[in-house]
Amino acid sequence: MAVYRQIHTTFWQDPEMIEYEPEEKYFYLYLMTNPHTTQCGIYEISSRLISIELGYPIDTVCELLNKFVDRGKILYSKDTREVFLVNWLKYNSLKSPKVMACVEKELQEVKFKPFLKEFYELCIQYEYPIDTLSIDLPLDYGEEKEEEKEKEEEKEQKEEKEQKEEEVKEEQPATAETKNVFRVFEENIHLPTSLEIEKLKNWLEDFEEDVIIMAIEEAVNRNARNMAYINAILNNWENEGLKTKDNVIAFKRDRTDKNNSKNSKSITKNKSSSKLEMDHDYDIDAIEEKLVNRNRGG
Question: What range defines the domain where residue 99 resides?
Answer without folding.
Answer: 9-126
